[in-house]
Structure formats: structure tokens, C-alpha cells
Amino acid sequence: MAASQGSARDRVGLGWRGELATGILSNLAHIDVLEVIADDYYHAARAGIAALRSLARQVPVSLHGVGMGLASTIPADPRRLHAMARLMKEVQAESWSEHLSFVRAGGVEIGHLAAPPRTPRSAAGAIANIALATRIVGSAPLMENIATLIQPPASTLDEAGWLTHILDGAQVPLLLDLHNLYANAVNFGHDPEQLLLRLPLNRVGAVHLSGGHWIDAPGGGQRLLDDHLHDVPPAVFALLTVLARQAPQPLTVIVERDGNYPSFEHVLDQLELARAALRAGRNA
């Protein structure tokens, strides 16, 4: 039974991590949906796939890709797309997502989700790759905005304009990472709420929440690093309230944590804070 919510349309869940497995499986009544890193299962043994399929029968599961590099003028690797297609079919996941980033160029894997130059050309490459991915996987991905510590060189579009260009051109939903948005805004002197309101919020299908920490910038000052190792800050919950007030469609909110794990009771508290932020926006 899914957890009760202030608005029955909205859901709040968690990113599946092995370190959190015991807590997750013991508290499924408090978790509406789980998001699983797809790349971890592309070459998994049958037992691993069977376990994931069993999990998907107990709670809705979405698959999240990290290695396709769809925001690129380089065509996406069909092998990765076919792997996602097989996993979607085997697990019967409800949806899948990827990042608006590139991860390789010139045959070099950079091991990082990097922001391409925000130009009409890179947007066109992303739109073409999303179309290819949709054909191969059989359903359209939700596409996620990423955090960056530097403004992409040679950009002619700002972040909101570039994202809107791709989402409208590809006709796909946005997986809105609110901490990524917040980090980019504060790092480059923008107002986070104003940046949020410039996005096509009617296209938001899901939301990521996470935390980060401040690091020294090379030229002095500091940058906020999105690291998934810390609690969701109050300012990001506040952005979720703004989003819930502005976007009438149902939202699926995923809290991400990749390390420095607190007690699972604390993790559940983070989910409840997300539910409270949603209710505050819906009831405004």
C-alpha cells in the first residue's frame, strides 16, 4: 500500500541503493516509488534481474540512466539504448529517464555528466538522440537538467532557453532536479526561483531532490557542488513548494542519496519534508 499524501496525485519516493536496501524493504508502506540506476543492471545476472522484477511487483519502479550522453552532437550508442529497452521489458518498469549531458567525445569517456555548449546545434543533437532513444526503447524518456561548476564555453543560449528548446523540440517530459537548478543559480548569480519559473513547468513529470556542499572555486569564492551526500537544503524544499503551486500535473518526487548515509529514520524524515513541501504548494 502506497503512503498516504496531502495530494493523492503526487508521489514521493527514493533512489534505490544497496546500502539502503534493508531500510527500503522494511518501509515500503512509506515509499511510493523507487528509482533504480539502470546502468547497474545492463549486464546483471539473471538473479539480479529477477530480484529487481520482484521489487517492481511490490512498488512502482522507474529506471534512471547515467551513461547515454544524449545531449551531444554525437549519435547515441544503440547498444546502450537496446540495453535499456531489454531492461524496461524484463522489469516492467513504469518509466525511464536520462540526463541532458554528454559523457564522451572523440572516443574518450570522461566519466562525468558534462554540460555541452548551450547552442542550437547541441540542442538539435539532443533532440535527434532523444528521438532515436524513444524509437529503440519504445517509450520517451524523462530528461534531467544537470549541475555544472562552470558555464559551458561557447554557449549562445542560457540554461532555461536551452532546456526549453530541447523539451519542446523532442516533446518529452522534464525530470527536474531542483538541487541542480539551485546550484547552477547560486553559482552563477541568478535567482533560483526566477530560473525555475522560466522553465516549461507544464512539462515536469518527475523531480529529484538532493544535497551538496560548498567548495573553493579556482578564482576565489565558492561553488555549490551537487554531491548527493548531504540532506536536501531548506531552499530546495522551498523550490518544490513553488513548483507544486505552479504545476497542476501530478509530480513524482525522488530523494537521492549516494553516500554518507544517515539512519533510515532520517531518510524517511526527508521524504516527509518533501510531502510537506508538496502540500504547502498544492494548498496555497
Automatic annotation (TrEMBL):
UniProt-listed InterPro entries: MbnB/TglH/ChrH, Xyl_isomerase-like_sf
Record-given protein name: DUF692 domain-containing protein
